[in-house]
Amino acid sequence: MTRSLTVLFVLASLNISAGELAWTTAGPETGHVTVVRFDPLAPNVVWAGTVGHGVFRSIDRGATWQPMNNSLDTGAVSAIAIDPNNSSNLLVGHYNIYHTTDGGAHWVVSEEGLLPGVSRITSMAVDPSRPSNVFVSTTRDVFNPSAGVQKSIDGGETWFDSGKAGLSTKDVLALVLDQLHPSTLYAGGQADYLGRPMFKSTDGGTTWFASSSGLLAGDITAIGLDPLTGLTLFASQDGALMRSNDAGMSWALDGAGVPSSCCTAIVYERNSSTNIWLATFDDIYRSTNGGVTWTPAKIGNEHVTALDLNAEGALVAGTENNGLFRRASSSSPWLPANNGFLASNVLAVAADQSHAGTLYAGTQRTGLFKSIDHAHSWQRLSADLLDLHFAALTIDPANSSTVYAGAANGSGFYKSTDAGATWSSPSFVPGAYAIVIDPSASNTLYVGTGRGVSKTTDGGASFTSVSKGLPSFTAFVALAIDPANPLTLYAGGTGTSGLYKTTDGGANWTKKLGQVSVGAIVVDHTNPATVFMTTSNGIMKSTDRGETWTESNSGIPTKSTAALWIDPLDGHRLYASTTLNGVFRSTDAGATWTSLGGVAPTELIGSLSVEPGGNVVHAGGSGGVFSYQFPGSGTIVRRRGTVH
């Protein structure tokens, strides 16, 4: 289990009144985009679906974005459908279906009649002649084989199975409706037991027949249909581009100039049979001759996951790692389009204690970022560090140019010696969830991994396992070192593995507290006998170096706690994040806690760090970094988060 699953918790709802202290959204503005849809009636309006952050709307063709998630489950959105006659009516799908009738201001679940066992809504199609007819394609979960196509005849209020007669594909991954002949649909996905991945209906989904002649054996992941003739189709199948010129009756390999990573989206320009766009994991391609040849229309080596264009030719593209891009026309350049698009998962945040305003953020799949202006703006540190789940960040207190990052995947351990400008992975670690540095020897580090604890004495060039006494195959997501005696360390694991302690630099570990999941551990630098940790039973405190523990939750209304930070100069001052109740502060060594500012972002928070001087608190979580500034410290935090 990754740190992102074990230490991300929900903070209280943001409800700010005039003059009230509040948290600010601080970016970085980026995220993983899954679907993009232009409003068919309003060419300036475009919607984007994300992984973990619901949907965003732009009313200026992608120049700025606003989340539209009131009552919407912000899971991995995979489909968006807009009523072609009334764009206030929208449907959003992930593992469930949500419906809005007021343009996204409010959402309600629309699941009546939806088959049980649906694991994901993969695509949606609306009948333009009768918008109350809506079709969705689905995949199944492992416990129920129900999957295929389902239909609504009341605009998404209720559903029924539309794939019983003839549709035998196991999982439907792509669905298109013929705009000229709305009773005609194509459903592609995982091949059935006869190796048929594509099916067609000509009676509005009542019956289906195979339309797979000439197709390969792999999955169909995207379909594009000529809007003017309804005869030419393109389908992406296991990286190949397939073409049919006879409404799906026969297929042949196509795609001269198309990379083997085709395709995540196939989009025709409005009112054109010749101008077609492909979104691929090797960027974007375009044809102006009906797909005979394809030429690159690249953003710049992006994994493009979504694409759409309006009737005037403006395009918006979504990517896996870098958020959104927009293009005013087919002849215009691509521009970043992430203003307001706060859809990153920040799993780790670290404030440089030697340089006020310098902050590092580690994200899930969107890379590492650095700010030198109190999180007002951000710089992506390396394009080579995408697709990684950064769960730990540690700055060398003796030399702040040396920064360590731990990831749950990839090589695990990453190092920079030039303040984040360049990074290397000197040695493999099987998932790095926590990193601590020996204060007496900065080349000695301990890493909490998915298989115990590892140690290096040469700055990460090599590691050895120091896990004797620790349970096997347990992720240790929390580590802390005694600043007065660096051979003493504390390690906390997931599940019910509990807390362990070593007094010989990791050679031997003993259990000090069991039957709890540990999220974070801190040691009081001014009194190292005092140790705090967040657990599944709340905040725990020890005053005898971890030998005995007592609860330290007075003033906190929940025992579900996650991130923890202690002032290195004043052990009486601590910060902790909780489930549903926000961030709390203690100024009396954990005896009592009070809500920080009374308001907090409605996001998942798993990391806390405070700038030197104690005036600015940064919280990392779902939606990016959130910052809180204490009064009387000048204007430091500003609401922005732009990535440069």
Structure description:
- The protein has 644 residues and is mainly beta.
- The chain has a domain at 344-643: 7 Propeller (Methylamine Dehydrogenase, Chain H), CATH 2.130.10.
- It is built from 1 helix and 59 strands.
- Strands 1-56-57-58-2 form a 5-stranded antiparallel β-sheet, with no helix packed on it. It has a 5-stranded mixed β-sheet with strand order 33-34-35-36-59, with no helix packed on it.
- Strand 29 and strand 30 (324-327) form a beta hairpin.
- It is elongated.
Task: Report a brief summary of the structure.
This protein has one helix and 59 strands.
CATH fold-level topology of the domain at 344-643: Methylamine Dehydrogenase, Chain H
What is the β-strand count?
Answer: 59
Whole-number radius of gyration? 26 Å
- Which structural category fits the helices and strands? mainly beta
Report the end-to-end length measured between terminal Cα atoms: 33 Å
Helix content: under 10%
What overall geometry do the principal axes of the alpha carbons give?
elongated
Spatially, the strands of the biggest sheet line up as 1-56-57-58-2
Q: Mind summarizing the main beta sheet? A: 5 strands, antiparallel
At the fourth level of CATH, the homologous superfamily of the domain at 344-643 is: YVTN repeat-like/Quinoprotein amine dehydrogenase
* Whole-number mean pLDDT: 90
Low-confidence stretches: 1-20
Strand content: 35-45%
* Broad CATH class of the domain at 344-643: Mainly Beta
Instruction: Give the number of helices.
Output: 1
Annotated CATH architecture of the domain at 344-643:
7 Propeller
